[in-house]
Design goal:
Strand order of the largest sheet: 1-3-2
Order of helices and strands: HHHHHHEEE
Distance between the termini: 84 Å
Radius of gyration: 23 Å
Helix content: 40-55%
Number of helices: 6
Length: about 190
Amino acid sequence: MNVLKKIGTAILIVLFSLASTFAILVIASQSVKADTVLVTSPIVGNPAIVNSEAGECMALNVYYEARSDNMAGKYAVADVVLNRVNDSRYPNTVCDVVKQGRLGNPPGSEVKRNMCQFSWFCDGKHDNPADEDSWQKAQIVAYNIMQHKKFRGITEGSTHYHASYVTPDWAETIELVGTIGQHIFYRWE
């Protein structure tokens, strides 16, 4: 009788474990929105957006400028890129904004080391994301802000930002908007 009781208990444990696993999978599948599905490949969200040149440039910029920031900070960095695209003082494509050298250099002109609008682009290091989790988050942000305009306007029109631990000379010449995450944001008056 004890043997049957132990077998019955073991079967119940296995069934409970399977039911729990199934319940977790169902809950997880319901809580992930279609536009933020993570996959094992580097492609996240809509491949047409993320694999486009603009999506790649945006994701790289979010990754290198804000990978350790909170999600609001990541979206804020992406918002600044789009604000610049819409401002006549800057190039009119995402990639040209991200890859721009000193302000005023024409798009496509030679970029000098450490003289870019976004420092990671001309720091002399490779531009291959190493942290897969941060890279996927950056791709999700790029996809969501470009495709769905998620958190578009979070920076209230900011065209500039800097990390909270530095104080660039230009910060006193334009209007302070505020701090989001690890960056301080500004816009032209």
